[in-house]
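[agent] plan:
  1. take the single chain provided in the ticket
  2. run structure prediction with default settings
  3. attach structure tokens to the ticket
  4. add a short note for the reviewer (M.T.)
[agent] executing step 1
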Amino acid sequence: MRQHATRSLRILAIAPTGFFADYGCHVRIRGQMGALAARGHHIRIVTYPSGRDVDELTTLRPPFWPRGRTMPVGSSRRKLLLDAWLAALLPVAARRFPAGRPDIIHAYLHEGALLGALVSRAWRVPLVFDYQGSLSEEMMDHRFLSASSPLLPSLRRLERWINRQPQAILASSAQATRQLIDGSKVSPQRVSTLPDTVDPAQFRPRAEWPAEQLAALRHRLDLPTGRPLLVYLGLLAPYQGTELLLQAMQRLARRDPAPHCLIMGFPDVDHYRKLAHEMGLDQHVTFTGAVSYEEAPLHLALGDVAVAPKVSATEGSGKLLPYMAAGLPIAAFDTPVHREYLGNQGFYARLGDAVSLAGALERALSANTEEKARRGWLLRARVIERYTWQHAAQEIEDRYRSLMCEVA
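[agent] step 2 finished; step 3 output follows
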């Protein structure tokens, strides 16, 4: 047992997505695995052919697929073929470890947990599942399935079966933990809450950035002067509340001075830019398209207020952590996940209500300088206290060690 408590571990991560891209679960994977690698563990990530490599992490990708070909966000039929390729690649990845097999299989997304369950039994290796929300609810959020689909009951049964296979599950929020225990009847002893985290040395308040860098970026983006700047960083999609944000901006355009909104993200940028034009918002919003994770901190530092309009009731909201680390006041829909991170420091709106979102943004913008600074400081302090990658790595490592002691 003492040996398990001290030696480095061989971790095979299964990530059925085009890792690395600049959003959501990719940031979670990169942060967790990067922090574990920094602690001396040996990491191999099996992932789709698309995506870009990260220096500190070793990735293995199926061959015979163009590297430049992007994958759609969310569910797609194309991914079924790639998942089969990932399954074939797992034994190859295992043999690349010094001992010929991993100590731990760490699966991301339900597809990864399904693949991990198959090889975990064959290799007698513990399976850890990083759970970020319901698979069936995600498919409905992404409009891959409708609530009336005849496939939905079967999919939910499969989802519940997958949820019961891992020896340990790391859920991204307290709400996700409740979903697993109450909805899938997973043993509470197998589930622990592991919230999204961030590097507060990377995402910093505006005062910690050189003024000339901020001015140069503002000039490059052609942002108006003399107007407050709202910032959004994340995917553009209905379940992310993108259209609701634009509707809120319509109402705020009557304000004097009217705020400007910097919308950073993808996909479907042309669609939302056209929609903003039709709504008369050309002078009130700027779409950047995808912003790399490395460039995101400086972009956020331009903002006066951040906005989190996500309407999904089942997924996490990892974008809050960079906002918090940047010391920004945050307007968000009132959901359990947002409350979990922001506590009483958020400016909240009724879920799915654009008028209420405009009101929350108005309250954030109208707050005096001291109040905005106070909330931003408290949110950043909250990150440093409990939401860093180092915190996450320690919790993951403790869970790994516990599992290995059980099978020793």
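[agent] step 4 note for reviewer: The first helix runs from residue 2 to 6.
[agent] ticket updated
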